[in-house]
Amino acid sequence: MQGFCIWIVKMKKSFSISVLSVLLFASCAHEFNQVYKSSDYSYKYEYAKECYARGKYIRCTTLLQELVTMMKGTDNGQECLFMLAMAEYKAKDYETAAEYFKKYSTSYPRGDYGELAKFYVGESLYMSTPEPRLDQTPTVAAITAYQSFLDMFPESELKPLAQDHLFELQDKLVQKELLSAQLYYNLGTYFGNCNGNGESNYLSCIITAQNALKDYPYSSLRESFALLVMKSKYELAQNSVEAKRMERYQDAEDECYGFINEYPDSKYVAMAEKYINRCKQFTKEENNDSN
C-alpha cells in the first residue's frame, strides 16, 4: 500500500546503523527475553523496530506496549505509537490497532503520521466488520471513520481506496436491510409476533424495505426491495380482515403498476401482472356484491 510504503521509508531512515550492526537480529527466545528485561530503552526500541521490519509483530508489540509511555514527549514518541498501531494491525488484532490509531490521532493531531493514522482507523475497523447477517454496529463505525478521513484529507492519495471500502461497507448495510426485510416476508402469517391475522410480518417487511429504498436510493438492490414491497402488499391484502381488504387490494394493485413502470424489463413483471389481475378480480367482485 502506497501510504504504508511512505511510512516504511521514513522509519528506515531513522534506524541507527550502528545499533543495527550490533543487533544482527536472531529469533531465539533467549535473546528476546534479554532485550525485554533490559533497562536500555534505546536498545530495546531499535530491537522493536527490527522486529517490525522482519515481520515479528507479536514481539514488536510486546516491547512497544512498554516503551510507548516512556517515549511520549520524546523525538521517538510519534513513531513509537504509530509503529505499535501498525504492528497490531499486521498481527491482525484489528480492534486494538484501531484504538492505537485513534490514540495517535488524538495525541498528535498534526503529527508526521496523522494522515496514515486516520486512514488506518477506518482500515482496522473495516477488517473487523462482520458478515451482513450479524449486527452491523462495527460497519457503521468503519464508515464513520472513513468519512472522517476523507473530510480531513480530501486530496489524499489514499482517497480512492477509502472510498472503495466505504461504498463496500454501505453495500453491507443494504444487504443487512434486505435480509431483514426478506426474513419478515418469509415469516408471513406466523403468529408468534403477529396480531393474529398475519399483518405484523408483512407490514414490517414493507416498512423495512421502504425505509431502505429511501435511505439507499442508488443501491443496486433497489429492485429487490421494491419486489418485497409489492409481494408483501399483495399478501397483506390476502390476509387482511374484511374491513381492510378492499383498501389493501387497491394499494397492492397500485404498487404492482408502480413496479412495472419502474422496472419494465424485470423478470418479475409477469408476477406483477398476475397480482394486478387478482386484485382487479377481487375489487370487481366486491363492487358487484355491494350493488
Structural notes for this entry:
The chain has helices at 2-13, 17-23, 29-37, 41-53, 57-71, 77-90, 94-107, 114-127, 137-152, 159-187, 199-215, 222-238, 242-262, 269-290. It has 14 helices and no strands. Helix content is 76%, strand content 0%. The model is unreliable at 15-27 (pLDDT under 50). Helix 4 packs antiparallel against helix 5 and helix 10 (159-187) packs parallel to helix 12 (222-238). The longest helix has 29 residues, at 159-187. The termini are far apart. It has 291 residues and is an all-alpha fold.
Please outline what is shown here:
This protein is mainly α and 291 residues long. It is built from 14 helices and no strands.
Q: Mean pLDDT, nearest integer?
A: 88
- Structural class assignment: mainly alpha
Biggest sheet: strands, sense, closure? none
Low-confidence segments, given as residue ranges, are 15-27
- Counting DSSP E segments of at least 2 residues, the number of strands comes to 0
The fraction of residues assigned to DSSP E strands is under 5%
Using the CA coordinates, give the radius of gyration: 29 Å
Helical content stands at: over 70%
How far apart the termini lie comes to 75 Å
Q: Specify the number of helices.
A: 14
Topology order in helix (H) and strand (E) letters = HHHHHHHHHHHHHH
Morphology call: elongated
Oligomeric composition of the shown chains: single chain
